[in-house]
Amino acid sequence: MIPIYYNEYYRKYSFGPLHPFDPVRFPRFVELVNDTEAMTEVFEVRKAVEASLDDLSLVHSETYIKKVLQLEKIGGRVSPDTPVKKGAPKAAMNIVGGTIQACRDAAESGSAVNLGGLHHAGRDYGEGFCLFNDVAVGAQMLADEGKKVCVFDTDAHQGNGTMDVFYQDPRVLFISIHQDPATLYPGRGYVHEVGKGAGKGYTVNIPMPRDAHTADHAYGIDKVVEPIVKKFAPHVIIRNGGSDPHHSDTLTDLGLDMTGLEYLGRVSKKLAQENNAGHVELLLSGYGPRVIEGWLAILKGAFDPSIETPDDKVFSSPEDPPSRAVRKTIEELDDILSAYW
Ligand SMILES: [Zn+2]
């Protein structure tokens, strides 16, 4: 059985009723899994255990943790788009706990899912609807245990928080494929951002133009991600990112259809299998009407072909040729990365 970590605190991960992040996604998704007989044969919803302050300290500074807890008491925000509402820090700590558990399963060469992926929070900052970075805490924990970790971030938004935490750390290979930062928050993740010091070459950013679809993503993944991951030979692959690369998403402009999200799940599993690595799937993002459908598409690709693919237009398949712009970006990136890989 593949565990999906969750508990009742996740739904308190809220920024208020008018905010685009709607936490009702968590209980709705878990209900759907539990009510779908075919899914209960593959997945088991397990109770996440709250992360401790020591766990958070693996990544976040004491000053920042204190600031978040203080803002919860007095009211305020860590950034203009991220208020700290009552109960939200505890909810984030539970989400971090779920990712820690999923990473422990993966360290034993297993597979696990958490409803997490708060990738915009860095050591000393929170933003982009992220208070504490569960992806980074999980990766740091594994790296400290001597594991080589690949974080494969397929969210439409680049994972700036995770990138910053590991920018100088060669134990964690951070790869992000995302919408061109010139056209979307966080405005980070250009091809020339490759890491620093000992971490040079261990950060890989693959920007995709607006409306990029499956064939474009697949080209970047075939040409860049697969060969680098093979050379790095990770013990664990943590893929993070939910439904926001889907064309229906209200905050982003990428053009993946449901088979594209399914492809992302499938390719992550392939990367894990080819490298004999543990596999963590983190699902969280998505804004608009099709968030949960997108998560199902990803899980279908990663673990369970019997899940029905949600109805959608199909723009392209992974075998189709990419756009000219994507070909050019990948050429440029290949040139830059050839110094390291
Ligand atoms: Zn996102």
Notable characteristics:
single chain, 341 residues, alpha/beta, Arginase, Chain A, eight-stranded parallel beta sheet, two-stranded antiparallel ribbon, 11 helices, 14% strand, globular, binds zinc ion
CATH A-level architecture = 3-Layer(aba) Sandwich
Number of helices: 11
Shape: globular
Q: Largest beta sheet: what is the strand line-up?
A: 2-1-5-10-9-6-7-8
Largest sheet features: 8 strands, parallel
What is the name of the CATH class?
Alpha Beta
- What molecules are bound to this protein? zinc ion
Q: How many domain units?
A: 1
Name of the CATH superfamily = Histone deacetylase domain
Mean pLDDT: 97
Rg measurement, Å = 18 Å
Order of helices and strands: EHHEHHEEHEHEHEEHEHEHH
CATH fold type = Arginase, Chain A
The percent range for strand residues is: 5-15%
Please report the total strand number as a whole number. Answer: 10
Class by helix and strand content? alpha/beta
Measured between the Cα atoms of the first and last residue, the distance is 36 Å
Which stretches are poorly predicted, pLDDT < 50 over at least 5 residues?
none
Helix content: 25-40%
Provide a descriptive summary of the structure in words.
- With 341 residues, the protein is α/β, with parallel strands linked by helices.
- It has a single domain (2-337), classed as Arginase, Chain A, CATH 3.40.800.
- It has eleven helices and ten strands.
- The protein has helices spanning 25-35, 37-40, 53-57, 62-74, 88-107, 134-144, 160-165, 214-232, 258-274, 291-302, 324-337; strands spanning 2-6, 43-47, 77-79, 82-83, 111-114, 149-153, 172-179, 203-208, 236-240, 278-282.
- An eight-stranded parallel beta sheet has the order 2-1-5-10-9-6-7-8, sandwiched between helices.
- Helix 8 packs parallel to helix 9 (258-274), helix 8 packs parallel to helix 11 and helix 9 packs parallel to helix 10.
- The longest helix is centred in the first third of the chain and has 20 residues, at 88-107.
- It starts with a strand and ends with a helix.
- Residues 155-157, 244, 285 line the site of zinc ion.
